[in-house]
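Pipeline run #58 for the internal structure catalog. This entry was flagged by the ingest filter as a single-chain record with no existing model, so it goes straight to prediction. Upstream metadata was stripped on purpose; only the residue string is passed forward. Reviewer on rotation: M.T. Logging verbosity set to normal.
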Amino acid sequence: MRDAADWAVARPGERFFYLNEGYVILGLIIRRVSGMPYEDFVRERILKPLGMDRTYFSADEVLRDPEVATPYIIDREGRHVPSKFPFGITSDGGLLSNVVDMSRYVTMLINRGEFNGVEILSRELIETAERGYIDVPWRIIGDEKYGYGLIVSQGFYGRKLVEHSGNVGVYTADMAYVPSDKVGIIIMANAEGYSLSKMGIYVLSRLLGHDPSELMPFMIENMVKRLEGTYEAYHGTVKVSIRGQGDYLIMRSTTKYTEEVTILVPDEVRRDYARFYTLMNGAKVPAEFLIEGDRVILIYERFKFIKRE
């Protein structure tokens, strides 16, 4: 971290950047203040009181457990390649757990620091950690801020949502809870893939009696799937194919000699209408989709297209 200041682009508190090394430093601070290794401190103060007896830091502990999920890397062709956990990382993601143990941890947070009558943390500390301090660049709900190791939204169906997810290349996890309703979830996967944060928010929406398709990320996701297909202009004089890629649409126009690829970015999405856009000569050019039952019409540049498949 000696030259880290040369890479800073904003003063503390002005702009969000996630840095694993920051959590390594926090682990070292705990070690200095407590006078014991970070891992031992976590075991004594958190894991043992919560009964998290299948939560590990070391390779030896993990290898002794008979039921450890094999981690995979998904390669360019979609193949699952067996891999290994990068043992040696510590306070920046070096803890391996399971949904049963982590449910105890989430229960403690929901109960404002208590579990089975034992205080692990004070209510004041938890509520301080759940306070949003700086906007984060990625958003699902729309108002997410970063607290102390937690992402916090105040606008989740009028409630506070606390969440955090991440991965270490081969394992992925998401933790989310709504303190006011005393509901929380843990999701874990042994590879990277579909967003676990979106999965968690989907489940919590259902638990609270709401339809998650009301939320913009799911509206965009569903719309992208709905718009995929082949489109034809008048009498098939021009054809384009549209496929989804994440939140975007990829539009291809192919002739005998050429292929033109255009990226369409979502701009406005409703149930019966969607407007995407691309850039052409520096100008914003719209691609409008009109949805009339099973019929989808695309208006783009000078063309009217109708979806055929």
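catalog note: The chain has two domains: 4-208, 219-307.
catalog note: The CA atoms of residues 118 and 142 lie 36 Å apart.
status: ready for reviewer M.T.
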